[in-house]
Amino acid sequence: MVGVDASAGMLARARAKAWPERVSFVHAPVESMEEAGAGGAYDAVLAACLLRNVADPDAVLRLVHRLLRPGGRLAAYEYGPGGRPPDRLVRKAVVNGFVRPWARLHGYAELCGHLYRSVPAFDTADVFTARLRRAGLTRVGCLPRPGRQTGITHPFVAQRA
Ligand SMILES: C[S@@+](CC[C@H](N)C(=O)[O-])C[C@H]1O[C@@H](n2cnc3c(N)ncnc32)[C@H](O)[C@@H]1O
């Protein structure tokens, strides 16, 4: 198991936890993880809130496709809010009624501002599933989440044929 992140601070938080010996961490942008010694082939890739933040998500998904072994799985946890007007209304209500006040209270206003701008600028759920297919992945799915995340965040799953 290899954990990759471009942020040294995020990796330090991860490394501070207890891990089995087979787990290692690589400090690199995902785009150059192979050059940094984290080439495939992987049984599975888990990308949590990554693809919205990279400059070229299609290129990263093509890389993921290449790094997976045949039959290997991708789970990508992303926002992917629905694009319909009721979905947008729910998202606004959750962000303005809960996320922003919580973030202000805990000193995360800047991070929240990034979320507020980047989530609607990125894919809706159907656009993201199309993106996964375009990268050559198969058995693409968008799973539901319960509670206040309903229709806002999704685990997306896919497989290399
Ligand atoms: C919202 S955080 C999620 C962190 C972690 N995956 C988790 O779920 O707890 C997004 C992470 O993506 C990382 N990131 C953004 N662009 C990246 C890139 N091009 N390569 C590697 N990591 C990147 C950031 O450093 C940050 O740690």
Features:
161 residues, alpha/beta, Rossmann fold, four-stranded mixed β-sheet, two-stranded parallel sheet, 5 helices, 23% strand, globular, binds S-adenosylmethionine
Q: What is bound: which ligands? A: S-adenosylmethionine
Spatial order of the strands forming the largest sheet = 3-4-6-5
Largest sheet features:
4 strands, mixed
Helix content: 25-40%
Ranges where pLDDT stays below 50 over 5 or more residues in a row are: none
- Per CATH, the class of the domain at 40-81 and 121-160 reads Alpha Beta
Mean pLDDT across every amino acid position: 91
Which CATH-level-2 architecture of the domain at 40-81 and 121-160?
3-Layer(aba) Sandwich
Can you offer a commentary on this structure?
With 161 residues, this protein is an alpha/beta fold. Helices cover 39% and strands 23% of the residues. The protein has a 4-stranded mixed beta sheet.
Brief description of this entry?
The protein has 161 residues and is α/β, with parallel strands linked by helices. The chain is built from five helices and six strands; from the N terminus they run βαββαβαααββ.
Give the arrangement of secondary structure elements.
Blueprint: E1 2-5, H1 8-15, E2 24-27, E3 42-48, H2 57-67, E4 68-78, H3 85-105, H4 109-121, H5 125-134, E5 138-142, E6 154-159
Parallel strand pairs: 1-2, 3-4
Antiparallel strand pairs: 4-6, 5-6
